[in-house]
Design brief:
The complex is a heterodimer. In chain A, α4 (41-51) links the parallel β1 and β2. The model of chain A has no long low-confidence stretch (mean pLDDT 96). By secondary structure, chain A is an alpha/beta fold. Helices cover 32% and strands 18% of the residues of chain A. Chain A contains eight helices and eight strands; from the N terminus they run αααβαβαβαβαββαββ. Chain A has a single domain (4-230), classed as Rossmann fold (3-Layer(aba) Sandwich), CATH 3.40.50.720. Chain A has an eight-stranded mixed β-sheet, sandwiched between helices. Chain B is of the alpha+beta class. Chain B has a single domain (5-81), classed as Beta-grasp domain (Ubiquitin-like (UB roll), Roll), CATH 3.10.20.30. Helix content of chain B is 19%, strand content 20%. Chain B has two helices and five strands; from the N terminus they run ααβββββ. Chain B has a three-stranded antiparallel β-sheet with strand order 4-3-5, with no helix packed on it. Chain B has a two-stranded antiparallel sheet with strand order 1-2. The longest helix of chain B has 11 residues, at 24-34. Chain A binds chain B through residues 36, 38-41, 125-130, 133, 150-158, 173, 175-178, 180-181, 183, 185, 190, 216, 218, 220, 222-223, 227-232, 234, 236, and chain B through 5, 15, 49, 51-54, 56, 59-61, 63-64, 78, 80-86.
């Protein structure tokens, strides 16, 4: 049930056909896991908070450094040395004091992922490496929790929405291990991709629109193009193939 | 064939290159013939692409076994690189 204050606060989006009071209440009742509080996690958490998602669980083990500030807009100069989740809680609480924030300064691993995502309605991928993305993907598939993928490099980014059991998952495109390297990035790239991921999350939670499933969206900021590529569910996928195999 | 940003340094900046062949593998070989420096950027070893290289034919994934996928006159191949940053 929305309070009078919430009805006023979210008035402009309640006006949107398909959201309404009912949709806003769905957002309020939702718990969204944001895995990472960096370049992608910053815009994702900010726009989830602004949209009125009731609970955000934010996970990041890292601390803020000077070189984060070109893109991780939740963190400011005064936060250098602070845990990213603590820095994020300060800003997000000031943006929306009516929401619940569950901040966890943890490293996501095969061992703890199941516990970390417990109770969440969706998982948003805001990681900075592929191995942890696959850990999240596998757990999302096992627990049938929608997973919203995003990744960036330079001026480029990509996004895809995964509905376990129905659509291609992130592992369906897996070709083998890749070297983990420091990646170049300008802040507007994760901003663009993060906002696409949040758009997908809002649509899913409210139940409107067409999701970015079985479609990999490629954003090229230098050419300013969006390219949509079809991805098929891989029957031999280690995570979602049938029968599912262990690594 | 559409060349990814990171590979255009090997194609004199060209974003699109005409290639010939009956399969994706043939087309990649023709591409490498034109721009030999691309070979190391695309292939880990003979007939084995780097794990980061993704191939799409007519906007649809060609994975798995992408090198033997047949192609026809006028088909479009996108060469992409997997992204990991966040």
């Amino acid at each position: 049930m929305l309070t009078p204050n919430e009805r006023e606060r979210y008035d402009r989006q309640i006006m949107i056909q398909g959201i309404g009071v009912e949709g806003q209440e769905k957002l309020k009742r939702s718990r969204v896991l944001v895995a990472g509080a960096g370049g992608l996690g910053s815009p994702i958490a900010i726009y989830l908070a602004a949209a009125g998602v009731g609970t955000i669980r934010l996970i990041d083990h890292d601390q803020v450094t000077l070189s984060n500030l070109n893109r991780q807009i939740l963190h400011w100069e005064e936060d250098i040395g602070r845990k990213k989740v603590d820095s994020a809680v300060i800003k997000l609480t000031r943006l929306n004091s009516g929401m619940t924030l569950e901040a966890m300064a943890e490293t996501i691993t095969e061992e703890n992922v199941s516990q970390l995502i417990e109770g969440c309605d969706v998982i948003v991928d805001a990681m900075d490496n592929l191995p942890t993305r696959y850990v999240l993907n596998r757990c999302a598939v096992e627990k049938r929790i929608p997973f919203f993928h995003g990744a960036v490099n330079g001026f480029e980014g990509r996004a895809m929405t995964i509905l376990p059991g129905k659509t291609a998952c992130l592992r369906c495109m897996y070709r083998g291990p890749v070297p983990q390297e420091k990646f170049p990035v300008i802040g507007v790239a994760p901003a663009m991709i993060g906002i696409i991921q949040v758009t997908e999350v809002i649509k899913y939670l409210v139940g409107i629109g067409q999701l970015l499933t079985n479609r990999l969206l490629i954003y090229d900021g230098l050419e300013l193009t969006f390219t949509e590529l079809t991805v098929h569910k891989n029957p031999d996928c280690e995570h979602c193939g049938s029968p599912r195999r262990k690594e | 064939m559409h060349i990814h940003t990171t590979h255009r340094q090997y194609t004199n900046g060209l974003e699109v290159v005409d290639v010939k062949g009956n399969t994706v593998g043939d087309c990649l070989n023709h591409l490498v013939q034109q721009f030999p420096a691309l070979e190391k950027a695309l292939f880990a070893k003979k007939d084995k692409l780097h794990n980061t290289v993704e191939i799409f034919v007519n906007h649809a994934t060609a994975y798995p076994n992408e090198l033997v996928k047949p192609v026809n006159e006028g088909d479009e191949i996108h060469l992409l690189v997997m992204l990991a940053g966040g």
